[in-house]
Amino acid sequence: MTAAHSAVLRLLFDCLDHQTDVVIRRGVAAPNELGDIEFGTNTITVDRTCDFPQFVHTLAHELVHFERGPGDIGDERAEEQRVTEETARLLVPDEVLPSILEAAKPDRLAAELQVDEATVRLAITLTRQEREAAARAEPTTDEGTA
Ligand SMILES: [Zn+2]
Q1: pLDDT tens track for 54-66
Q2: How far is the CA of 117 from the centre of ligand 1 (A)?
Q3: Coil/strand/helix, residue 4
Q4: In angstroms, rounded to a whole number, what is the distance separating the alpha carbons of residues 68 and 74?
Q5: How far apart are CA 17 and CA 10, in angstroms?
Q6: Residue 55 backbone zone (phi > 0: left; psi -120 to 50: alpha; other: beta)
Q7: Contacts 24+ apart (CB under 8 A), 16-20
Q8: Would you tell me which of 46, 49, 91, 106 could form a disulfide with 120, CB atoms 3.0–4.6 Å apart?
Q9: Do 58 and 50 contact (CB within 8 A), yes or no?
Q10: What tens digit of pLDDT does each residue of 56-112 get?
């Protein structure tokens, strides 16, 4: 069990906490997709061709969709991007990343967490942006703390 797996289990727990009926099935997902979700019936399909790491990633992605609810019509691409980013941050939590992000080894992290390297790279990029934004938001010393 990796940190990524724990995060997916935690998300599943949270989903089931406020919506007790979620159907997760392996089957045939929408064309060119590894997974899909039907909000009307709370049904998540993970494509039967997925190997275990793909299964974990796809399940996480669809659970993030589930938590966020159906996106606005006409905003599907933006919503998909947000879900992709949220999934990357979920699967690659802050605590597995080094404090110096330049020292992160995406291939090694991917193997450790059993997620794909592209997701690790996205998570590193997002984390860098978050840390830079946090650093900018921090008050400078001359603003005082008293
Ligand atoms: Zn999606």
Answers
A1: 999 999 999 999 9
A2: 18
A3: helix
A4: 16
A5: 10
A6: alpha
A7: 19/66
A8: 106
A9: yes
A10: 999 999 999 999 999 888 888 999 999 999 999 999 998 899 999 999 999 999 999
Span from the CA of 140 to the centroid of ligand 1 (angstroms): 40
Give the Å distance between the CA of 77 and the centre of ligand 1.
9
Query: Hunting for tokens 């991007």 — which residue is that?
Result: 81
Query: With helix as H, strand as E and coil as C, how does 116-132 read?
Result: CHHHHHHHHHHHHHHHH
Distance (angstroms) between ligand 1 centre and the Cα of 33 equals 9
- Residue holding tokens 């797996």? 5
Structure tokens at 3: 């940190």
Amino acid at 27: G
Q: What is the dihedral of CA 122, 123, 124, 125, to 10 degrees?
A: 50
Cα of 37 from ligand 1 centre, angstroms: 8
Alpha helices (H) along 50-103: 52-68, 76-91
Q: Determine the 3-state secondary structure of 27 from DSSP.
A: strand
Instruction: Report the predicted TM-score, pTM, of the whole model to 2 decimal places.
Output: 0.87
Domain architecture of the chain: domains with CATH: 3-70+83-132 (3.30.2010)
